[in-house]
Amino acid sequence: MLKTTEINIRDPFVLPMPSEQQYYLYGTIGTETWEGKASGIDYYTSQDLENWEGPFAAFRPPAGFWADRNFWAPEVHAYLGRYYMFASFKAEGVSRGTQILAADTPKGPFLPISEGPMTPRDWECLDGTLYVDAEKQPWMVFCHEWVQVGDGEVCAVRLSDDLSAAVGQPQLLFHASEAPWAQEIHPKGRSGYVTDGPFMHRLSNGELIMLWSSFSTGGYTVGIARTASGDITGPWEQDAEPLYAGDGGHCMVFRTFDGQLLLAYHRPNETPQERPFFVPLREEGSTLVIDQNA
To answer: Which CATH number fits domain 2-290: 3.40.605.10, 3.40.50.720, 2.115.10.20, 1.10.760.10?
Structure first.
């Protein structure tokens, strides 16, 4: 049994399973984040979000798999009776992209349902997430990386009903620099604005918002974008102040079995110190705030 503070992952994603009264935690294996070849994607299970069993294998690359490193940011979504993993992968000389895998249970084993990523083959992309609109049309929201475009982009592409193919071309939703709080970074002689980890959330008043990450004066940071149209294609506007600016990010939102809304993110952003954190949220007007009193 492991405590949350003993789990070294980035990009935590929690899938509650009410039928089991159990939470599944997925994430980027901390020790395999940046360098060398990746072994796969793991998960942990817990009944209380404090004590965890695992890690267990969720995905191991099959023979001939196109990527061998940077197995990043797995998300697992229940959709039409199966479980779909959105994860980003890369190989030497091949652009990073988000591929979709499927399994009959959240334990896996997850297997690819397409020949390669859903993102354009000549784009450097990451952090795909599932969004299903009011017409039950599935979309993938993802990031076009700053390392290729300078000013990182958040884009959306329609998916086929079975999630096995992209339909049409990606649509640009916004650039990182549109957020007043976002700051340019300058690592290894490069300069740019980062977009990471988009996650869609609909407020109880029906408004559609997106949580996403970049950098600010507080280090790695979570911000909120919103669309008054209620449609994924926008137009999107950025909140002036971030939701969280404490050198933590790549977040998602979920509800506990007793109905508490939680924000999951990793902190700090330095390898190998990253750990998953779960903090209470509440709706306040037409936004989310971290609930310091919960």
So the answer is: 2.115.10.20
Which DSSP symbol is given to 187? Answer: G
Amino acid 222: pLDDT: 98
The arithmetic mean of pLDDT across residues 221-248, rounded, is: 96
State whether residue 149 is helix, strand or coil.
helix
Whether the CB-CB separation of 290 and 243 falls below 8 Å is answered with yes
* Distance in angstroms (rounded) separating the CA atoms of residues 41 and 231: 32
pLDDT value at 228 more than 90: no
Choose among 169, 25, 32, 167: nearest CA to 107. Answer: 25
Q: Contact 172/236 with Cβ under 8 angstroms?
A: no
pLDDT digits (tens, 9 = 90+) for 171-184: 999 999 999 999 99
Cα–Cα distances (Å) from 102 to 111, 123, 163, 222, in that order, read: 5, 23, 9, 28
**CB burial class (10 A; 0-12, 13-18, 19+) of residue 169?**
exposed
Which residues lie closer than 8 Å to 51 by C-beta, 6 or more apart? 1, 2, 3
Location of structure tokens 């974008």: 225
Q: Is the pLDDT of residue 167 over 70?
A: yes
- Residue 294 in this model has a pLDDT that exceeds 70: no
Are 200 and 138 within 8 A, CB to CB?
A: no
Answer whether 282's CB lies under 8 Å from 271's CB. no
Name the burial class of residue 198, with classes exposed (0-12), middle (13-18) and buried (19+) by CB atoms within 10 angstroms of its CB.
buried
Cα–Cα distance for residue pair 194/106, rounded to 1 Å: 30
